[in-house]
């Protein structure tokens, strides 16, 4: 364990202890992951005869969805599924066959949040055929693609999509393709000892009510799995980039891209492909929350800083939404990460000659050389379209982000051609192939 220092550890444990006591949580665990390793763990309350440990199981709830989404993305990378495919191509017979796989992953398909059954989290589940039979036209609540509307139903259907392609249950596919490669051997569909019992805490008295636990069957992909703080820390390490061959790094990055964000002046929360997104404490976080009767869990990661934070608790409600962000703030206060030392790199002379000032019409831009032959094109004034570019085998560069993401940059004789936009060393250089002119500059 790459442990934090004593001062940071005491501050982190105190924040956890305050949360457990003031929120009246039967047991509460939390961990911080840095550079793929557990840097700190804390447990308060009681499970059985002692405090919870890294190996105590809790329910993950909807964190399960992210693991199902990972297998769907593996199917995409294998060419078996296209994210623009309609659901009906893979799971026929629903009343919303034209909703796409991407819309289901990002909760933008317009489906109802809950299935047309008794409260599914608290009652035994139905076989998938029976669930599909109950999903009539009124299952749709919004036009597909119109807005974010969280749908547990959608993930039940994604689990069936996985099962049909893999020829096994969704949970077996997740176990083989995600859990085992990541070393998450204590993540299971039903509890194993030692595990916490799920409780509801009375709102006006310090007494407990045991919550039910069962197999959700067709709805299980929406929140069935149990796990431990140690295993959830391995999942956090995966989300920060330690993929271990489960996904290509670029696929994981795609899952973290916002597919939809909250409606506000500046987005603070959103959803990608199977991952919740947040902006908090100066960080861009990716992960997921989870809740089932008697349990709460959350994992957030900051891939840019290679840090993750998580908690697991056996209570139906009550844990502060700010707990994890505050734990990260404590870490930053006591043990801020130092920047990597700057080092010079070897540069191709031809690429080095491209750097410097260019113009898009009259607007000045700066072209910089990045490591591994990458390029950065940014407005000299700091305002406007900025993008990074990565080299391609055919001698062009592909836009990585910003306005020009996915667009092609070509280098010509004395000019840059960026998806038909011509950049020149001088404003509207007449030696470059600029459509429509230019004329003479005058007063």
From TrEMBL:
Residues 348-425 form the DUF7586 domain. It is an enzyme of class 3 (hydrolase). It comes from the Bacteria. The keyword Hydrolase applies. Residues 20-320 form the Beta-lactamase-related domain. Keywords: Hydrolase. GO terms for molecular function: hydrolase activity. InterPro entries: AmpC-like, Beta-lactam-related, Beta-lactam/transpept-like, DUF7586. This is Serine hydrolase domain-containing protein. It comes from Nonomuraea mangrovi.
């Amino acid at each position: 364990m790459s442990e934090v220092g004593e001062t940071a550890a005491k501050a982190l444990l105190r924040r956890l202890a305050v949360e457990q006591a003031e929120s009246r949580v039967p047991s509460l665990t939390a961990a911080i992951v840095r550079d793929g390793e557990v840097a700190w763990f804390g447990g308060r309350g009681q499970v059985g005869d002692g405090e919870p440990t890294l190996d105590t199981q809790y329910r993950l709830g909807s964190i399960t969805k992210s693991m199902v989404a990972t297998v769907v993305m593996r199917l995409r990378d294998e060419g078996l599924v296209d994210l623009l495919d309609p659901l009906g191509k893979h799971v026929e017979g629903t009343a919303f066959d034209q909703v796409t796989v991407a819309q289901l992953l990002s909760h933008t398909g317009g489906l109802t949040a809950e299935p047309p059954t008794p409260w599914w989290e608290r009652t035994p589940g139905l076989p998938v055929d029976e669930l599909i039979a109950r999903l009539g036209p009124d299952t749709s609540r919004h036009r597909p693609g119109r807005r974010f509307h969280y749908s547990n139903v959608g993930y039940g259907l994604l689990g069936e999509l996985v099962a049909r392609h893999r020829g096994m249950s969704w949970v077996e596919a997740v176990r083989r393709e995600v859990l085992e490669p990541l070393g998450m051997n204590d993540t299971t569909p039903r509890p194993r000892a030692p595990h916490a019992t799920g409780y509801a805490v009375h709102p006006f008295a310090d007494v407990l009510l045991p919550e039910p636990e069962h197999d959700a069957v067709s709805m299980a992909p929406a929140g069935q799995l149990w796990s431990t703080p140690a295993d959830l820390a391995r999942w956090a390490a995966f989300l920060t980039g330690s993929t271990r061959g489960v996904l290509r790094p670029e696929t994981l990055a795609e899952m973290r891209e916002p597919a939809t964000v909250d409606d506000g002046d500046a987005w603070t929360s959103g959803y990608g492909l199977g991952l919740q997104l947040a902006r908090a404490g100066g960080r861009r976080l990716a992960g997921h929350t989870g809740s089932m009767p008697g349990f709460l869990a959350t994992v957030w990661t900051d891939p840019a800083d290679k840090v993750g934070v998580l908690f697991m608790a056996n209570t139906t409600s009550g844990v502060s939404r700010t707990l994890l962000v505050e734990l990260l703030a404590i870490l930053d206060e006591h043990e801020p990460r130092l920047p990597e030392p700057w080092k010079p790199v070897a540069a191709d002379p031809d690429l080095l000659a491209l750097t410097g000032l260019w113009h898009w019409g009259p607007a000045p831009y700066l072209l910089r050389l990045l490591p591994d032959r990458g390029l950065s094109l940014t407005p000299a004034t700091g305002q406007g379209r900025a993008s990074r570019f990565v080299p391609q085998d055919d001698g062009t560069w592909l836009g990585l982000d910003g306005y020009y993401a996915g667009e092609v940059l070509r280098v010509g004789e004395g000019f840059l051609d960026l998806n038909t936009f011509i950049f020149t060393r001088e404003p509207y250089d007449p030696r470059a192939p600029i459509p429509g002119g230019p004329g003479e500059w005058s007063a």
